[in-house]
Design brief:
Chain lengths: 150, 150
Amino acid sequence: MRVDEVKPVSVAGTMAFRIGTLGAILTERFTAALVPLDLKPKHVGLMTLLEARGAASQLDVAKAMGVAPSLVVTLADHLERLGAISRVRDPGDRRRQLLDLTAEGRALLGRCLEVTLELDAELTGGLGPRDRAVLARVLSTLAAQAGLPV
Amino acid sequence: MRVDEVKPVSVAGTMAFRIGTLGAILTERFTAALVPLDLKPKHVGLMTLLEARGAASQLDVAKAMGVAPSLVVTLADHLERLGAISRVRDPGDRRRQLLDLTAEGRALLGRCLEVTLELDAELTGGLGPRDRAVLARVLSTLAAQAGLPV
DNA sequence: GTCGAATCATTCATGCTCTGAATGATGTAT
DNA sequence: ATACATCATTCAGAGCATGAATGATTCGAC
C-alpha cells in the first residue's frame, strides 16, 4: 500500500473535515473583505448565479441556492438598492419577478473577483505550481459534480 | 502559458469560492449525519481538539476554536452531559476548568470518523486514485498552514 | 500579609441569519 | 366561472453566536 492512500485515523485527518473547516475560514475572510462593498457572501452567490444563467425568477434562484424563497426577497431587495440587479415582472407571467445583472452588478462582481483571487493567492501561496494546478482542476471537477455555477 | 494556470474569470471559478461552497455543503451533510449522535459540528471540533492536544482549559479551547469563551461553556455542558468529556477544576489554578476526552468520548469520535470517511468517499468517488491522493496531500498542507488540529 | 488589578468561567440579554406559515396577486384547468 | 396551483412578500419565531456583567480565584505591588 502506498503512503498516499492510508486512511485517516482521526476526524481531523479527513478531507471532508478539512474542506469544511477551510471553507469556514475562507468564508469568514471573504465576508470581512466584502464589508466595504456592502455585500454578504450570499449576495455574491446570487449575482454569480445570474451571471452564469442569465435572468431568473426568484423561485428559481431560491432553488438553485438551496435557500427559502423569502430569503431571496431580502437579498434581491438589497442588490436592487445597490443597483446591481434589475427586478421586473415577467411579462409572460406576472407572478414572477425576473432578476438580472445590471452593468453595475457586473462591475461589482469584478470587484468580488479581485477579492477571491487575492484569497486564492493567500491560500495557495505555500503550494508549488504543480500542486496548485492539480488542486484547481480537482476543485473544478468537484464543483461541477456538486452543481455549482460555472 | 499552460492551460492549467489560466486565471479564473469569474468568482465561481476561484478556488476560494469553491472551497467555501463545498465546505458549506459538506458541513450541512455532516450536521445531518450527526443528529443521531446528538452532536453538532462544533462539538466534534471541540472533541477533536482535545484528542489532538490533550486536556485543555476552556479558554484555551475557545482561542483555538476561534469562538467566544461563553460558547465553550455551552458546548462543554452538552458534551459533559453525554459523558464524552470530563470537566475538573485545575488543582494548580482553581479558576480553570480542565476539559479532557473520556473513553466514551473517544468512542463517540470513532463514530464521527466513520461519518467523515463516508463523506470523503462520496466527495471523491468520481476522482481517480491519483487525484484523490494529491488532493489529500494538498489539503493536509493547507490544513497545517491554517493551524487546524493534526 | 493585604489590597487592587487581572484572569477564568458563567449567565444573560441581544443581534443576526434563516426558515416556515399566512397573505395577496396572478395564472391554469375544468 | 370557479376552484386550485404558483409566485412573491411579510412577519413571527427558532437557532447560533457574541459581548457585557457577575462572581470566584489568582497575581503583583507595596
